[in-house]
Amino acid sequence: MRAGAALCGALALLLLPRVAPAQAPSALPRAEPRPPAERRNPVVTAAERSRGAVVNVSAEEMVRVRVPTPGADMGQLFFEEFFGKPRFRSGYAVTSLGSGVIVSPDGHVMTNAHVVERGARFRVQLLDGRELPARVVGTDPATDLAVLRVETKEKLPFLPAGRSDDLMIGETVIAIGNPFGLAHTVTTGVVSALHRKVGDPRRQLFDMVQTDASINPGNSGGPLVNIQGQLIGVNTAIIGDRSAGIGFAIPIDRALRVAEDLIRHGEVREGFTGAAVKDEPVKSDRIGGDRVRVQVSAVEAGSPAAAAGVRKGDVVESVADAPVESAAEYRFRVRDVPVGGTVRIGITRGKERLQLSVRLVELSPERAEQALEQRTGLVLGEEKVRGGAVVVVRSVRRGSPAAETGLQAGDWIREVNSLEITSLAEWRKAAVQARSAGRLVLLVQRGFAAERVAFDVD
Question: Residues 56, 99: contact at Cβ < 8 Å?
Fold first, then answer.
């Protein structure tokens, strides 16, 4: 009886309505809650509009991993290492992590070239956590830009492009990316400066947007957004190994010009003026030492520059109304102009100051090859050898820069600007890039010996 009563008492307790325990009053005062709508400022709105178009990019490189024989002891492994045939297994390893931004609903993603340069296959992670495969549409190391295409049939959220030619120092900007693997991180700041030069003398980026929005390793390729949620730059560089409140972005006007060429042609179409320039040191009493001026060193007959009236010896002061301080900057700014476009080049000729309009034509591989032959004195051909083909020196013009370096007929050209070549088609393609860079570096093989020789070919 007692057991039954106890059971009924327990059931009665279970069936009683539960009463929430009384909460002790807070010891610290709290603010009255405000609706989220009252806290949604322009930065929040812009971040909400933008985050869905930002992706994390992972690049995987093909690697070969040594596979030991199962059950082998140390002696067998030693013998296999030095006298046998070691076994290998191919696989993929993640080599870089970065960010990207979807710029069209069909899945084109803009990112940095250095994010994808070593990868063999790529994946992007969306805001909702999904991972999708992607392929490289094209890369442009000169501007550190690349375009991927997400392999999906669905329409994806994208970030509309704004403008970078009307940016104001001090205006609010937002950086979104994948710093240190922390996906879709949002930081804010302002435009700190415009038209910055970044890099070292061997490789420079000009006309960059400087911002104090925190940009860290992993932000590379992510968007810089204005307060209206429009894409105004692609985050690219920081000072040092860690961000110190100084980051740089490629302005969107340049990024779009490059991306459109990569999507349409798989590479950037080079504009050609026919005017070669060089850095000419001159004495300057104002700065108490030498300064550099950009001087026209040659003008090809029949070229657009010749038609516009550019002459050898002219000093270039500006390109597209922007001052230029080096031959590298001149080439960089001319490269911004699409094929078929016209660029204003400001020059000084004696006491005259002139503004000349030059219409750019396409720098075809054949035109680039002819120009390099004229500049270097090298005539190249292609020969079949055991196991493939090789690019060989056919002749060297007497008294030319190539003759001065000691190059001879019969030498093999193995690399152009660190890119391996095995055919004339590859040589001509590399010639276009060399003309754009203004520098031609050849790896030359003669017998069992090899050395590098360099030429200025701007």
Answer: yes
